[in-house]
């Protein structure tokens, strides 16, 4: 994505009935200052647009968001996706906390933002869908394969028919063979859309399967393809994206799956313990 596409995206949000002069100045401020808009306080935006802070909030609502924080999260994700990895690396300034604690601090903020971006009811609906599926394929690539593996590994340990496919291409195609209305595809992606994942979601949808997208954009390519979208922040401290919020979400989904049928979960965990002992999986401490 090129920087100008952030402006195109913002313009596409303009309502058909138009905006008042004050709200239009806010929108133009966002278009011409995407970096400042991505990180600035509402007062900074209001000052640049020469409006009251309340006008910034009303502009966000007019563009289809609940308020300024929701718009800023989406805008920041779009802005970061417009940068190359090298540009992202160059814009990151090392803070006084050091690399480790800077990462902790960023992920703490990501988790706080996730509390606002993901509704509990959305998570509950996803848990019900996965629990009731005949087959679940978790598709992810790159670093986002890690939270995908968490869901597949722990979910299968509970007895759910969940597998992960992280290789893409023909492997993903094979995983979706025979997919139908009783099946579910879970896609994990962030930053820029991955062609294999978008096309796989389209294929699954065409075959009547349900699609769940875990992404950092609510208004991305999965908006029309996914039955459920869980938006999690992915901003990192360097040239890469953070998977912390997505991983935490996977833990929550697995916990929900474990509590769908407590008796079944106990049986599955007992069987897993027996398998560990037979296979001598763990060394005695």
From TrEMBL:
Keywords: DNA-binding, Transcription, Transcription regulation. It comes from the Bacteria. Residues 126-263 form the SIS domain. GO terms for biological process: carbohydrate derivative metabolic process. PROSITE patterns: HTH_RPIR, SIS. PANTHER family: GLUCOKINASE (PTHR30514), RPIR-FAMILY TRANSCRIPTIONAL REGULATOR (PTHR30514:SF18). Residues 6-82 form the HTH rpiR-type domain. GO terms for molecular function: carbohydrate derivative binding; DNA binding; DNA-binding transcription factor activity. Pfam families: HTH_6, SIS. This is DNA-binding transcriptional regulator, MurR/RpiR family, contains HTH and SIS domains. Transmembrane segments: none annotated. The keyword Chaperone does not apply.
